[in-house]
């Protein structure tokens, strides 16, 4: 008979899990296990990544990174957003995940196995942490839910998403994203 898994997981416990190809996160001690994404997830992620990358090449206000990552803002938090943007600070090089801080943008592409986590525990965590924008990309509904720290409900975007990072607008054609 095997030992029962602990009910409360710290970031260090998650980091110590075997590298078995799984994606493990913890939000306030709750272990989140993510299966491999569907191909459509990866296609949509690459389209979002391409759009954000192109924008940042012309307006280098931030640095884009993606999972796998070990973003941790406390002993019982470790998350891996599909894609995220952090502010660039040339005086502070990013050497380890602890150098990242709070992203200005976090993006999760929904999968059947992650929807409740992305819309629930992770959304609340990102809002409380002060992530300026959290986009939940719903490929089945063909829309993006935009959450900001004080939002009670998401802004639901199914045609165009405009992100203003502080003076420079970035636009995603949501309809084209899902073609």
Structure notes:
This protein is α+β, with helices and mostly antiparallel strands and 179 residues long. It has a single domain (36-177), classed as tt1808, chain A. The protein contains 5 helices and 12 strands. The strands form 3 sheets. It has a 6-stranded mixed beta sheet with strand order 3-6-7-8-9-10, sandwiched between helices. A hairpin with a 2-residue loop joins strand 4 and strand 5. The longest helix has 20 residues, at 39-58. The protein is globular, with a radius of gyration of 16 Å. The mean pLDDT is 89.
| Total strand segments | 12
- What is the number of domains? 1
CATH topology: tt1808, chain A
Estimated radius of gyration: 16 Å
Secondary structural class: alpha+beta
Draw up the topology in text.
Layout: H1 11-15, E1 23-27, E2 30-34, H2 39-58, E3 62-66, E4 71-74, E5 77-79, E6 83-87, E7 105-109, H3 115-119, H4 121-129, E8 133-138, E9 143-147, E10 155-157, E11 160-164, E12 169-173, H5 174-177
Parallel strand pairs: 7-8
Antiparallel strand pairs: 1-2, 1-5, 3-6, 4-5, 6-7, 8-9, 9-10, 11-12
Gist?
This protein is of the alpha+beta class and 179 residues long.
Main attributes?
179 residues, alpha+beta, tt1808, chain A, six-stranded mixed beta sheet, four-stranded antiparallel beta sheet
């Amino acid at each position: 008979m095997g030992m029962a898994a602990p009910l409360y997981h710290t970031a260090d416990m998650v980091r110590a899990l075997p590298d078995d190809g799984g994606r493990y996160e913890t939000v306030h001690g709750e272990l989140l296990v993510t299966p491999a994404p569907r191909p459509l997830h990866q296609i949509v992620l690459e389209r979002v990544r391409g759009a954000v990358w192109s924008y940042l090449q012309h307006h280098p206000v931030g640095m884009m990174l993606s999972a796998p990552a070990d973003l941790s803002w406390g002993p019982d938090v470790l998350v891996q957003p599909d894609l995220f943007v952090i502010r660039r600070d040339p005086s502070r090089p990013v050497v380890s995940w602890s150098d990242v801080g709070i992203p200005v943008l976090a993006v999760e592409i929904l999968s059947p196995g992650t929807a409740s986590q992305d819309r629930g525990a992770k959304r609340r965590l990102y809002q409380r942490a002060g992530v300026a924008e959290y986009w939940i990309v719903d490929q089945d509904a063909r829309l993006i839910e935009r959450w900001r720290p004080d939002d009670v409900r998401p802004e639901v975007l199914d045609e165009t998403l405009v992100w203003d990072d502080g003076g420079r607008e970035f636009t995603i054609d949501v309809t084209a994203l899902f073609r």
